[in-house]
Amino acid sequence: MRIVTLNVNGIRAAARKGLFDWLARERADVVCLQEVRAQADQIAAPQFHPAKFHCFYEPAERKGYSGVALFSRREPDEIIRGFGSTEFDAEGRYLEARFGALSVVSLYLPSGSSSEERQQAKFRFMTEFRVHLARMGQDAAGGTGRQYLLCGDWNIAHKEIDLKNWRSNQKNSGFLPEERSWLDDVLGPLGFTDSFREVNPDPDQYTWWSNRGQAWAKNVGWRIDYQIGTPGLKGAARRAAIYKDSRFSDHAPLLMDFELDAGTGR
Predict the structure, then answer these.
(1) Burial 210-221, CB ≥16 within 10 A → b, else e
(2) Is 257 a catalytic residue?
(3) What confidence tier does 264 reach under pLDDT thresholds 50, 70, 90?
(4) Do 5 and 225 form a contact (C-beta atoms < 8 A)?
């Protein structure tokens, strides 16, 4: 199963840069998109609903803001919109597709870089979402047996290896001690796995670059886009690639191949 995740920074802008032509060549089984920033009437054109995919969008209530999407070749058994948060479900940050005992989620954590107010919102999201993650872990371990793969922009670089200038960013949103500790918990006690790092332990592997200066040209980036799985998916990743031959947004697509059986979750 090939899964692609990408923060498109506006799906209409990404489409103009060739996103859908590229997707048609990638043989993806599931595509997770974040920061779609479009309402239903703005993405009614056929190009936003590729013929070989079942296409689902979860826009934010606020126009031109946030929003996620999920495309899948196989029709999902069920689509779940939101994770039960009054505040954040209105921002279009969670879209789950269920295929047998496997769930794939398009996920978009808030960014806190624009203001202290948004950083506090990010912390609130982390607190609420941690409860949901614990629930998922319980399901996977012995409840329903369902396994979850959460794909998207987590807006946190986990370790020093995950951003170029880690020393100068320790007080900046996305690499704050509280954020990194939260991911330590997700990838530690909660038992989730960073699937990319299972198959690629190398440095200089980034998925986002600032538009300032020559960050892209010099590969001064951050790895903030992940595919993170519940314990039962550990070891299922076979290949990971960050596509950088073309630019569709300030993020790069993360492609991963898994040995997965959607009927059993493995």
Answers:
(1) eeeeebbeeebb
(2) no
(3) very low
(4) yes
Distance CA 241, CA 164 (A): 18
Q: How confident is the model at residue 262 (pLDDT cuts 50, 70, 90)?
A: low
Phi, psi of 25 (to 5 degrees): -95, -10
To the question of pTM greater than 0.85 for the whole model, the response is yes
Tell me the C-alpha distance between 123 and 102, whole Å: 28
Burial annotation 174-201 (CB, 10 A radius, 16+ → b, else e):
bbbeebbebbeebbeebbbbbbbbbeee
Which contiguous run of DSSP H or E holds residue 226?
A: strand 225-229
C-alpha–C-alpha distance, residues 175 and 155, integer Å: 9
Helix (H, G, I), strand (E, B) or coil at 6: strand
Q: Which one of the listed residues 21, 29, 77, 153 is annotated catalytic?
A: 153
- Alpha-carbon distances of 235 from 190, 195, 196, rounded to whole Å: 17, 8, 11
Closest CA to 112 of 30, 171, 192, 42: 171
Reduced to 3 states, what is the DSSP secondary structure of residue 240? strand
| Residue 135 host element (H or E) | helix 116-141
Q: How far apart are CA 23 and CA 190, in angstroms?
A: 33
Report domain extents, the chain: 2-258
Element containing residue 7 per DSSP (H, E): strand 2-7
pLDDT in tens, 174-191: 999 999 999 999 999 999
The 8-class DSSP code of residue 248 comes to S
In CATH terms, 2-258 corresponds, of 3.60.10.10, 3.40.50.1220, 3.40.50.300, 2.30.30.220, to 3.60.10.10
